[in-house]
Design goal:
This protein is about 80% helix and about 0% strand. By secondary structure, it is mainly α. The chain has a single domain (about 25-405), classed as Amino acid/polyamine transporter I.
Protein backbone atom coordinates (compact mmCIF):
# COMPACT_ATOMS: atom_id res chain seq x y z
CA UNK A 1 0.00 0.00 0.00
CA UNK A 2 2.81 2.39 0.84
CA UNK A 3 4.45 1.75 -2.52
CA UNK A 4 1.24 2.56 -4.36
CA UNK A 5 0.95 5.83 -2.48
CA UNK A 6 4.52 6.70 -3.37
CA UNK A 7 3.95 5.87 -7.01
CA UNK A 8 0.83 8.07 -7.14
CA UNK A 9 2.42 11.02 -5.30
CA UNK A 10 3.95 12.72 -8.37
CA UNK A 11 0.57 12.69 -10.17
CA UNK A 12 -1.17 14.19 -7.17
CA UNK A 13 1.46 16.93 -6.89
CA UNK A 14 1.11 17.77 -10.59
CA UNK A 15 -2.65 18.19 -10.24
CA UNK A 16 -2.31 20.26 -7.08
CA UNK A 17 0.07 22.75 -8.74
CA UNK A 18 -2.68 23.89 -11.10
CA UNK A 19 -5.15 24.12 -8.23
CA UNK A 20 -2.68 26.00 -6.02
CA UNK A 21 -2.10 28.56 -8.76
CA UNK A 22 -5.86 28.89 -9.26
CA UNK A 23 -6.45 29.42 -5.53
CA UNK A 24 -3.72 32.08 -5.39
CA UNK A 25 -5.18 33.98 -8.34
CA UNK A 26 -8.75 33.60 -7.01
CA UNK A 27 -7.68 35.25 -3.75
CA UNK A 28 -5.64 37.92 -5.55
CA UNK A 29 -8.24 38.81 -8.19
CA UNK A 30 -11.01 38.78 -5.56
CA UNK A 31 -9.14 41.51 -3.71
CA UNK A 32 -8.40 43.47 -6.90
CA UNK A 33 -11.83 45.00 -7.45
CA UNK A 34 -13.15 48.49 -8.23
CA UNK A 35 -12.42 49.56 -4.64
CA UNK A 36 -8.80 48.40 -4.95
CA UNK A 37 -8.23 50.62 -7.99
CA UNK A 38 -9.81 53.67 -6.35
CA UNK A 39 -8.15 53.23 -2.93
CA UNK A 40 -4.68 52.82 -4.39
CA UNK A 41 -5.10 55.88 -6.63
CA UNK A 42 -6.50 58.14 -3.90
CA UNK A 43 -3.91 57.19 -1.27
CA UNK A 44 -1.03 57.58 -3.74
CA UNK A 45 -2.36 61.03 -4.59
CA UNK A 46 -2.44 61.92 -0.87
CA UNK A 47 0.82 60.33 0.30
CA UNK A 48 2.87 60.39 -2.95
CA UNK A 49 6.03 58.24 -2.66
CA UNK A 50 5.30 57.46 1.03
CA UNK A 51 2.45 55.18 -0.08
CA UNK A 52 5.20 52.64 -0.81
CA UNK A 53 5.57 52.20 2.97
CA UNK A 54 1.83 51.53 3.30
CA UNK A 55 2.06 48.85 0.61
CA UNK A 56 5.06 47.21 2.33
CA UNK A 57 3.42 47.08 5.78
CA UNK A 58 0.06 45.91 4.41
CA UNK A 59 1.67 43.13 2.38
CA UNK A 60 3.59 41.86 5.41
CA UNK A 61 0.45 41.81 7.56
CA UNK A 62 -1.55 40.25 4.70
CA UNK A 63 0.94 37.37 4.59
CA UNK A 64 0.52 36.74 8.33
CA UNK A 65 -3.27 36.69 7.94
CA UNK A 66 -3.37 34.40 4.91
CA UNK A 67 -0.80 31.86 6.10
CA UNK A 68 -2.57 31.48 9.47
CA UNK A 69 -6.04 31.02 7.98
CA UNK A 70 -5.13 28.84 5.01
CA UNK A 71 -2.99 26.49 7.15
CA UNK A 72 -5.70 25.83 9.73
CA UNK A 73 -8.33 25.31 7.01
CA UNK A 74 -6.02 22.78 5.32
CA UNK A 75 -5.02 20.96 8.53
CA UNK A 76 -8.58 20.71 9.86
CA UNK A 77 -10.18 19.93 6.50
CA UNK A 78 -12.99 22.29 7.51
CA UNK A 79 -14.36 25.52 6.07
CA UNK A 80 -14.19 28.76 8.07
CA UNK A 81 -17.74 28.55 9.45
CA UNK A 82 -17.26 24.90 10.52
CA UNK A 83 -14.06 25.79 12.38
CA UNK A 84 -15.83 28.73 14.08
CA UNK A 85 -18.74 26.50 15.19
CA UNK A 86 -16.26 24.07 16.77
CA UNK A 87 -14.52 26.92 18.60
CA UNK A 88 -17.85 28.28 19.90
CA UNK A 89 -21.26 26.85 18.88
CA UNK A 90 -23.15 29.43 16.83
CA UNK A 91 -20.07 31.53 16.02
CA UNK A 92 -19.88 29.96 12.57
CA UNK A 93 -23.42 31.10 11.83
CA UNK A 94 -22.55 34.66 12.91
CA UNK A 95 -19.43 34.65 10.73
CA UNK A 96 -21.35 33.21 7.77
CA UNK A 97 -24.12 35.83 8.07
CA UNK A 98 -21.57 38.67 8.20
CA UNK A 99 -19.67 37.36 5.19
CA UNK A 100 -22.76 36.59 3.08
CA UNK A 101 -24.33 40.01 3.76
CA UNK A 102 -21.03 41.77 3.13
CA UNK A 103 -20.32 39.72 0.02
CA UNK A 104 -23.79 40.41 -1.40
CA UNK A 105 -23.59 44.14 -0.77
CA UNK A 106 -20.09 44.48 -2.19
CA UNK A 107 -21.05 42.34 -5.16
CA UNK A 108 -23.51 45.08 -6.11
CA UNK A 109 -20.50 47.38 -6.34
CA UNK A 110 -18.52 44.75 -8.25
CA UNK A 111 -21.32 44.32 -10.81
CA UNK A 112 -21.52 48.11 -11.14
CA UNK A 113 -17.74 48.20 -11.68
CA UNK A 114 -18.03 45.61 -14.46
CA UNK A 115 -20.66 47.80 -16.14
CA UNK A 116 -18.41 50.85 -15.85
CA UNK A 117 -15.51 48.84 -17.26
CA UNK A 118 -17.45 47.95 -20.42
CA UNK A 119 -18.59 51.58 -20.61
CA UNK A 120 -14.97 52.79 -20.65
CA UNK A 121 -13.84 49.98 -22.94
CA UNK A 122 -16.67 50.00 -25.52
CA UNK A 123 -18.88 52.98 -24.69
CA UNK A 124 -21.65 50.60 -23.58
CA UNK A 125 -24.43 51.69 -21.20
CA UNK A 126 -23.23 50.75 -17.66
CA UNK A 127 -26.42 48.89 -16.71
CA UNK A 128 -26.41 46.92 -19.97
CA UNK A 129 -22.71 46.23 -19.43
CA UNK A 130 -23.41 45.01 -15.88
CA UNK A 131 -26.09 42.59 -17.12
CA UNK A 132 -23.78 41.18 -19.85
CA UNK A 133 -20.94 40.84 -17.31
CA UNK A 134 -23.22 39.01 -14.87
CA UNK A 135 -24.25 36.64 -17.67
CA UNK A 136 -20.56 35.89 -18.28
CA UNK A 137 -20.00 35.18 -14.56
CA UNK A 138 -23.07 32.93 -14.44
CA UNK A 139 -21.87 31.02 -17.51
CA UNK A 140 -18.74 29.97 -15.55
CA UNK A 141 -20.88 28.23 -12.93
CA UNK A 142 -22.96 26.38 -15.52
CA UNK A 143 -19.91 24.20 -16.25
CA UNK A 144 -19.77 20.82 -14.54
CA UNK A 145 -16.15 21.62 -13.60
CA UNK A 146 -16.97 25.17 -12.46
CA UNK A 147 -13.97 25.25 -10.11
CA UNK A 148 -11.49 24.65 -12.93
CA UNK A 149 -13.24 27.20 -15.18
CA UNK A 150 -13.09 29.75 -12.33
CA UNK A 151 -9.36 29.07 -11.86
CA UNK A 152 -8.64 29.67 -15.55
CA UNK A 153 -10.68 32.91 -15.69
CA UNK A 154 -8.96 34.24 -12.53
CA UNK A 155 -5.49 33.43 -13.89
CA UNK A 156 -6.14 34.92 -17.36
CA UNK A 157 -7.70 38.09 -15.92
CA UNK A 158 -4.87 38.45 -13.41
CA UNK A 159 -2.16 38.22 -16.08
CA UNK A 160 -3.96 40.73 -18.35
CA UNK A 161 -4.35 43.22 -15.49
CA UNK A 162 -0.70 42.94 -14.44
CA UNK A 163 0.64 43.42 -17.99
CA UNK A 164 -1.56 46.44 -18.73
CA UNK A 165 -0.81 48.00 -15.35
CA UNK A 166 2.95 47.57 -15.80
CA UNK A 167 2.71 49.14 -19.27
CA UNK A 168 0.93 52.23 -17.92
CA UNK A 169 3.38 52.46 -15.01
CA UNK A 170 6.27 52.42 -17.52
CA UNK A 171 4.71 55.18 -19.67
CA UNK A 172 4.39 57.61 -16.74
CA UNK A 173 8.13 57.43 -15.89
CA UNK A 174 7.61 57.49 -12.10
CA UNK A 175 10.45 58.50 -9.71
CA UNK A 176 11.32 54.90 -8.77
CA UNK A 177 14.32 55.89 -6.62
CA UNK A 178 12.20 58.22 -4.50
CA UNK A 179 9.55 55.52 -4.16
CA UNK A 180 12.10 52.97 -2.94
CA UNK A 181 13.57 55.39 -0.36
CA UNK A 182 10.12 56.30 0.99
CA UNK A 183 9.08 52.65 1.15
CA UNK A 184 11.63 52.10 3.91
CA UNK A 185 11.91 55.66 5.25
CA UNK A 186 8.54 57.38 4.61
CA UNK A 187 8.03 61.12 4.91
CA UNK A 188 4.36 60.56 5.82
CA UNK A 189 2.63 57.64 7.56
CA UNK A 190 -1.14 57.08 7.39
CA UNK A 191 -2.58 54.46 9.77
CA UNK A 192 -5.98 54.90 8.11
CA UNK A 193 -4.46 54.04 4.71
CA UNK A 194 -2.78 50.90 6.13
CA UNK A 195 -6.03 49.68 7.72
CA UNK A 196 -8.04 50.40 4.58
CA UNK A 197 -5.58 48.63 2.29
CA UNK A 198 -5.37 45.57 4.59
CA UNK A 199 -9.17 45.41 4.79
CA UNK A 200 -9.40 45.65 1.02
CA UNK A 201 -6.76 42.96 0.47
CA UNK A 202 -7.73 40.32 3.04
CA UNK A 203 -10.98 41.56 4.60
CA UNK A 204 -14.37 39.86 4.57
CA UNK A 205 -14.81 36.92 2.20
CA UNK A 206 -11.39 37.50 0.56
CA UNK A 207 -9.61 36.02 3.59
CA UNK A 208 -11.18 32.62 2.90
CA UNK A 209 -11.43 32.63 -0.92
CA UNK A 210 -8.24 30.68 -1.66
CA UNK A 211 -8.41 28.43 1.42
CA UNK A 212 -11.93 27.28 0.60
CA UNK A 213 -10.98 26.74 -3.05
CA UNK A 214 -8.10 24.46 -2.02
CA UNK A 215 -10.40 22.54 0.31
CA UNK A 216 -12.99 22.01 -2.43
CA UNK A 217 -10.19 20.72 -4.67
CA UNK A 218 -9.18 18.18 -2.00
CA UNK A 219 -5.95 19.90 -0.93
CA UNK A 220 -5.84 19.32 2.83
CA UNK A 221 -3.92 17.63 5.62
CA UNK A 222 -0.58 18.34 7.31
CA UNK A 223 1.32 16.95 4.30
CA UNK A 224 -0.18 19.67 2.07
CA UNK A 225 1.04 22.59 4.24
CA UNK A 226 4.17 23.49 2.22
CA UNK A 227 2.07 23.85 -0.95
CA UNK A 228 -0.73 25.67 0.89
CA UNK A 229 1.77 28.18 2.29
CA UNK A 230 3.29 28.73 -1.16
CA UNK A 231 -0.17 29.32 -2.66
CA UNK A 232 -1.18 31.82 0.04
CA UNK A 233 2.05 33.81 -0.35
CA UNK A 234 1.71 33.68 -4.15
CA UNK A 235 -1.73 35.27 -3.88
CA UNK A 236 -0.31 38.15 -1.82
CA UNK A 237 2.59 38.55 -4.28
CA UNK A 238 0.17 38.88 -7.24
CA UNK A 239 -1.85 41.45 -5.28
CA UNK A 240 1.38 43.26 -4.41
CA UNK A 241 2.56 43.44 -8.02
CA UNK A 242 -0.76 44.99 -9.04
CA UNK A 243 -0.67 47.44 -6.13
CA UNK A 244 2.93 48.50 -6.85
CA UNK A 245 2.31 48.87 -10.60
CA UNK A 246 -0.76 51.06 -10.03
CA UNK A 247 1.09 53.02 -7.32
CA UNK A 248 3.95 53.78 -9.72
CA UNK A 249 1.56 54.74 -12.52
CA UNK A 250 -0.28 57.22 -10.27
CA UNK A 251 2.99 58.50 -8.77
CA UNK A 252 4.27 59.22 -12.27
CA UNK A 253 1.16 61.26 -13.09
CA UNK A 254 1.31 63.14 -9.77
CA UNK A 255 5.04 63.84 -10.21
CA UNK A 256 4.31 65.45 -13.59
CA UNK A 257 2.00 67.91 -11.83
CA UNK A 258 -1.09 66.65 -13.64
CA UNK A 259 -4.49 66.96 -11.93
CA UNK A 260 -6.41 63.73 -11.26
CA UNK A 261 -10.20 63.92 -11.70
CA UNK A 262 -11.72 63.21 -8.23
CA UNK A 263 -14.96 61.85 -9.75
CA UNK A 264 -13.10 58.82 -11.19
CA UNK A 265 -9.46 58.84 -10.00
CA UNK A 266 -8.16 55.59 -11.57
CA UNK A 267 -9.75 56.29 -14.97
CA UNK A 268 -8.25 59.78 -14.88
CA UNK A 269 -4.75 58.36 -14.27
CA UNK A 270 -4.94 56.05 -17.28
CA UNK A 271 -6.27 58.82 -19.53
CA UNK A 272 -3.56 61.25 -18.42
CA UNK A 273 -0.90 58.57 -18.89
CA UNK A 274 -1.90 57.26 -22.33
CA UNK A 275 -4.77 59.36 -23.71
CA UNK A 276 -7.90 57.67 -25.06
CA UNK A 277 -6.02 54.40 -25.49
CA UNK A 278 -5.19 54.57 -21.79
CA UNK A 279 -8.84 55.13 -20.98
CA UNK A 280 -9.74 51.98 -22.98
CA UNK A 281 -7.03 50.10 -21.05
CA UNK A 282 -8.62 51.28 -17.84
CA UNK A 283 -11.90 49.81 -19.09
CA UNK A 284 -10.24 46.43 -19.65
CA UNK A 285 -8.59 46.48 -16.20
CA UNK A 286 -11.76 47.67 -14.46
CA UNK A 287 -13.86 44.97 -16.14
CA UNK A 288 -11.30 42.22 -15.39
CA UNK A 289 -10.99 43.39 -11.77
CA UNK A 290 -14.74 43.60 -11.31
CA UNK A 291 -15.73 40.33 -13.01
CA UNK A 292 -13.19 38.30 -11.03
CA UNK A 293 -14.42 39.97 -7.84
CA UNK A 294 -18.03 39.09 -8.78
CA UNK A 295 -17.02 35.44 -9.22
CA UNK A 296 -14.84 35.37 -6.08
CA UNK A 297 -17.42 37.06 -3.85
CA UNK A 298 -20.25 34.80 -5.01
CA UNK A 299 -18.22 31.58 -4.76
CA UNK A 300 -16.73 32.31 -1.33
CA UNK A 301 -19.91 33.75 0.22
CA UNK A 302 -21.93 30.68 -0.78
CA UNK A 303 -19.13 28.40 0.48
CA UNK A 304 -19.94 29.76 3.96
CA UNK A 305 -23.45 28.29 3.94
CA UNK A 306 -22.78 25.04 2.06
CA UNK A 307 -22.37 23.02 5.26
CA UNK A 308 -25.65 24.25 6.79
CA UNK A 309 -27.95 21.95 4.77
CA UNK A 310 -27.45 19.02 2.34
CA UNK A 311 -29.61 20.76 -0.28
CA UNK A 312 -27.28 23.79 -0.27
CA UNK A 313 -24.28 21.50 -0.75
CA UNK A 314 -26.02 19.67 -3.60
CA UNK A 315 -27.17 22.77 -5.47
CA UNK A 316 -24.42 25.22 -4.45
CA UNK A 317 -23.60 26.19 -8.06
CA UNK A 318 -27.22 27.26 -8.61
CA UNK A 319 -27.18 29.22 -5.36
CA UNK A 320 -24.01 30.99 -6.55
CA UNK A 321 -25.86 31.89 -9.76
CA UNK A 322 -28.79 33.20 -7.69
CA UNK A 323 -26.34 35.26 -5.63
CA UNK A 324 -25.01 36.91 -8.81
CA UNK A 325 -28.53 37.48 -10.16
CA UNK A 326 -29.67 39.23 -6.96
CA UNK A 327 -26.60 41.50 -7.02
CA UNK A 328 -27.19 42.38 -10.67
CA UNK A 329 -30.93 43.02 -10.31
CA UNK A 330 -30.32 45.25 -7.30
CA UNK A 331 -27.86 47.36 -9.27
CA UNK A 332 -30.03 47.42 -12.41
CA UNK A 333 -33.24 48.37 -10.57
CA UNK A 334 -31.99 50.46 -7.65
CA UNK A 335 -28.42 51.48 -8.45
CA UNK A 336 -25.64 51.36 -5.86
CA UNK A 337 -27.16 51.64 -2.37
CA UNK A 338 -24.44 53.90 -0.98
CA UNK A 339 -25.67 53.82 2.64
CA UNK A 340 -25.80 50.02 2.67
CA UNK A 341 -22.31 49.85 1.22
CA UNK A 342 -21.02 52.25 3.86
CA UNK A 343 -22.56 50.25 6.69
CA UNK A 344 -21.39 46.91 5.33
CA UNK A 345 -17.95 48.41 4.68
CA UNK A 346 -17.68 49.33 8.33
CA UNK A 347 -19.00 45.93 9.48
CA UNK A 348 -16.70 44.17 7.00
CA UNK A 349 -13.71 45.65 8.79
CA UNK A 350 -14.76 43.67 11.88
CA UNK A 351 -14.75 40.34 10.02
CA UNK A 352 -10.95 40.13 9.72
CA UNK A 353 -10.12 40.28 13.47
CA UNK A 354 -13.12 38.05 14.29
CA UNK A 355 -12.19 35.47 11.66
CA UNK A 356 -8.44 35.49 12.36
CA UNK A 357 -8.97 35.47 16.12
CA UNK A 358 -11.23 32.42 15.78
CA UNK A 359 -8.66 30.65 13.60
CA UNK A 360 -5.87 31.30 16.14
CA UNK A 361 -7.99 29.79 18.93
CA UNK A 362 -8.76 26.80 16.69
CA UNK A 363 -5.02 26.32 16.08
CA UNK A 364 -4.70 25.10 19.68
CA UNK A 365 -7.78 22.85 19.88
CA UNK A 366 -6.91 19.17 19.39
CA UNK A 367 -10.42 18.26 18.22
CA UNK A 368 -9.90 20.62 15.26
CA UNK A 369 -6.23 20.30 14.30
CA UNK A 370 -5.28 16.93 15.83
CA UNK A 371 -1.51 16.49 16.35
CA UNK A 372 -0.54 19.57 14.32
CA UNK A 373 1.69 22.13 16.10
CA UNK A 374 1.05 25.69 14.94
CA UNK A 375 4.26 27.80 14.70
CA UNK A 376 4.56 30.28 17.58
CA UNK A 377 5.70 33.09 15.27
CA UNK A 378 2.46 32.76 13.28
CA UNK A 379 0.39 32.92 16.47
CA UNK A 380 2.23 36.04 17.68
CA UNK A 381 2.05 37.89 14.34
CA UNK A 382 -1.56 36.82 13.84
CA UNK A 383 -2.50 37.97 17.35
CA UNK A 384 -0.87 41.34 16.63
CA UNK A 385 -3.03 41.77 13.51
CA UNK A 386 -6.18 40.78 15.46
CA UNK A 387 -5.58 43.41 18.16
CA UNK A 388 -4.60 46.23 15.78
CA UNK A 389 -7.37 45.57 13.26
CA UNK A 390 -9.93 44.97 16.02
CA UNK A 391 -9.32 48.33 17.67
CA UNK A 392 -9.06 50.30 14.43
CA UNK A 393 -12.07 48.63 12.78
CA UNK A 394 -14.27 49.48 15.79
CA UNK A 395 -13.07 53.08 15.57
CA UNK A 396 -13.89 53.09 11.84
CA UNK A 397 -17.35 51.64 12.49
CA UNK A 398 -18.20 54.42 14.95
CA UNK A 399 -16.90 57.00 12.48
CA UNK A 400 -19.11 55.61 9.69
CA UNK A 401 -22.36 55.23 11.66
CA UNK A 402 -23.14 58.99 11.91
CA UNK A 403 -22.77 59.26 8.11
CA UNK A 404 -25.62 56.81 7.61
CA UNK A 405 -28.31 58.83 9.40
Amino acid sequence: MKRNNLEQAPVKKQVSKSVLLGAAFLMATSSIGPGFLTQTTVFTQQLAASFGFVILISLLLDVFVQINIWRIIAVSGLRGQEIANKVLPGLGVVLAVLIVIGGLAFNIGNVAGAGLGLNAMLGMDPIKGAVISAAFAIFIFLFKEAGKAMDKVAQAAGVVMILLMLYVAFTTSPPVGEAIVNTFKPEHISIFAIVTIIGGSVGGYITFAGGHRLLDAGVKGIESLPDVTKSSVMGIVVTGIMRVALFLAVLGVVSMGLTIDPSNPPASVFKLAAGNAGYRMFGVIMWAAAITSVVGAAYTSVSFIRSFHPAIEKYHNWIIILFILVSTLTFALVGQPVKILLLVGALNALILPLALGTILVAAYKKDIIGSYKHPLWLTITGGFVVIIMGVLSIMTLFEQLPLLF
